[in-house]
Design goal:
Layout: H1 2-10, H2 17-27, H3 32-40, H4 46-56, H5 68-77, E1 91-95, E2 98-101, E3 106-109, H6 112-115, H7 124-134, H8 147-162, E4 169-175, H9 178-196, E5 204-208, H10 217-221, H11 226-229, E6 239-242, H12 250-253, E7 258-263, E8 266-267, E9 273-274, H13 277-290, E10 293-297, E11 323-326, E12 337-342, H14 343-346, H15 362-375, H16 378-401, E13 406-412, E14 415-420, H17 425-433, E15 436-437, E16 439-441, E17 445-448, H18 456-475
Parallel strand pairs: 3-15, 5-6, 5-7, 7-10, 10-11
Antiparallel strand pairs: 1-2, 2-3, 4-12, 8-9, 11-12, 13-14, 14-17, 16-17
The protein binds pyridoxal-5'-phosphate (PLP).
Catalytic activity: glyoxylate + L-alanine = glycine + pyruvate
Pathway: Amino-acid biosynthesis; L-arginine biosynthesis; N(2)-acetyl-L-ornithine from L-glutamate: step 4/4
GO molecular function: alanine-glyoxylate transaminase activity; identical protein binding; pyridoxal phosphate binding
């Protein structure tokens, strides 16, 4: 770290390095040895020489203060509200499982835009669908019919039922994001509570610690992370929190005053924590007893990510929800979300109860309609389960090699977590500088949510890079600066 800081502090005085650095990056690793030798005899400070030598061994060292990237970032950052902390590379192109930065350096992407680009970057079918519909009709508002909002709703309902998930799915409300899908779910639960008990007493919503449901005030009120909630307190009234997978507490937590319970069948941001079937069954049973609606947030874990269309689809119908929310992969990068409900829930919603200007516009709806068909493919889902095994074998090797640093693995399909004992931020940097993008979640968990189309060769390539990165951080004690943002954003959340 000291070396890199010194390097950055040296800033402008490092002009002589620039050609050397460009030589290293433009000619690749072949030039590395020559560069290292060239700087050895120079009159640069020793720590700068060491820093350059280190960088020349990396394929994608983070851009330096005198780089094209830094120039662009410095120019633009001052105009953006500082809600995010980002590492230096600036991405301008994507294809399949790869991204390229503005300096034309390639990165293998194990993040898929936080579980969004399930079909990979710039999938030709998705791009073509966007182009076709953009040339035909993009938006008319929800004051008028269009062919795609209804077709998408029908497709979501029928694909869901066919897949063996949520057997009561009957209708969908289409919106633009995960938070909005959850806002709709929370409002529908409140409306159902008021319908069942007009006194207004049945308004409580239960959610669980380590959950993440979004940043809008309703979704945030259901996200009991002090880091997110505290600056915006007070939260909305009526929100309560339980411990994930704690069945014993449910009888006290879910009462006649509860109108809704929202849960992720696999918690994403919270650390890739899988709900047990017993827990989901117990939630369903208690919701039936009290007349509360059960809401599954499958915004991250749904749409093929676990090797089934929906994560809860592997559980019996006695563990299915009344409301199911989705977004992320539904648009593969195009902003679209949906709230699926049973006929019982829908019957309690009236015209004017909820709405959106953009939600369900022909462009987003047609894109999502195309994508849900592709993600329902049983072959894709089977391949996701096979690829889970490839990851797990690689995890096993890493665990054997670094038993002091690596703990358990969690998750399902291509939503996997590798628990580290310490802060993974330096590993994130070391991996990125070697050409692999990876994110964290929970407490010290490395999160693996690559595009579902990733190949076995790409998984093995990425895992080899990760092993190199871990070797640098754990074994050779190389000082790698941590990636900021992974913590400040609470595990890289959206
Ligand atoms: C499980 C879950 N729910 C809701 C959200 C919020 O979605 P969005 O960022 O699209 O509003 C996220 C985003 O990370 C999520 O993972």
């Amino acid at each position: 770290m000291a070396m890199r800081q010194c390097m950055r502090r040296a800033g402008a005085s490092l002009r002589p390095c620039t050609p050397i650095r460009s030589l290293a990056t433009s000619r690749g690793r072949g030039a590395a040895a020559a560069t290292a030798t060239a700087v050895q005899g120079s009159n640069l400070p020793q720590e700068v020489i060491e820093s350059i030598q280190r960088d020349t061994t990396l394929c994608n060292p983070d851009p330096h203060p005198d780089s094209k990237t830094a120039g662009l970032v410095t120019d633009q950052l001052q105009y953006m509200v500082p809600t995010y902390v980002r590492p230096m590379p600036m991405f301008e192109k994507g294809e399949g499982c790869y991204l390229w930065d503005v300096e034309n350096r390639q990165y293998l992407d194990f993040t898929a835009g936080i579980a969004v680009n399930a079909l990979g970057h710039c999938d030709p079918g998705v791009t073509q669908t966007i182009q076709n519909q953009a040339a035909q009709l993009m938006h008319t508002s929800n004051l008028y019919h269009n062919p795609w909002t209804g077709l998408l709703s029908k497709e979501l309902v029928s694909r869901t039922k066919q897949s063996g998930a949520m057997q009561d799915a009957a209708r969908a409300f289409i919106c633009n994001s995960g938070s909005e899908a959850n806002e709709a779910a929370i409002k529908f639960a409140r409306k159902a509570g008021r319908t069942l008990d007009p006194s207004g007493e049945k308004h409580r919503i239960l959610s669980f610690h380590q959950s993440f449901h979004g940043r809008t005030l309703g979704a945030l009120s259901a996200t009991p992370n002090p880091k997110y909630q505290k600056p915006f307190a007070p939260m909305l009234p009526g929100f309560h929190y339980g411990t994930f997978n704690d069945i014993a507490a449910l009888d006290t937590l879910i009462t006649d005053k509860t109108c809704g319970v929202i849960v992720e069948p696999i918690q994403g941001e919270g650390g890739v924590n899988v709900a047990t079937e017993e827990f989901l069954l117990a939630l369903r049973r208690r919701c039936n007893e009290t007349g509360a609606l059960l809401i599954f947030d499958e915004i991250q874990c749904g749409l093929g990510r676990t090797g089934s269309l929906w994560a809860h689809g592997d559980h019996p119908s006695e563990a299915h929800p009344d409301i199911l929310t989705t977004a992320k992969a539904l648009g593969n990068g195009f902003p679209v979300g949906a709230t699926l409900v049973s006929e019982k829930v829908s019957s309690m919603i009236q015209t004017g109860d909820h709405g959106t200007t953009f939600g369900g516009n022909p462009l987003g709806a047609r894109v999502a309609h195309h994508i849900i068909g592709r993600l329902s493919d049983p072959q894709l889902q089977q391949s996701v389960r096979q690829k889970e095994q490839v990851f797990r074998q690689c995890f096993g090797r890493l665990q054997q090699r670094f038993p002091q640093q690596i703990g358990e693995t969690r998750g399902k399909g291509l939503m996997l977590g590798l628990q580290l004992h310490d802060d993974p931020a330096p590993i994130i940097t070391a991996a990125r500088e070697r050409g692999l993008l990876i994110i964290t979640c929970g407490t010290n968990t490395l999160r693996f949510v690559p595009p579902l189309i990733i190949t076995q060769a790409e998984i093995e390539k990425g895992m080899a890079i990760l092993e190199d990165a871990m070797t640098a951080v754990f074994a050779t004690n190389e000082h790698v600066p941590p990636t900021r943002g992974q913590q400040e954003m609470g595990g890289g959340s959206a």
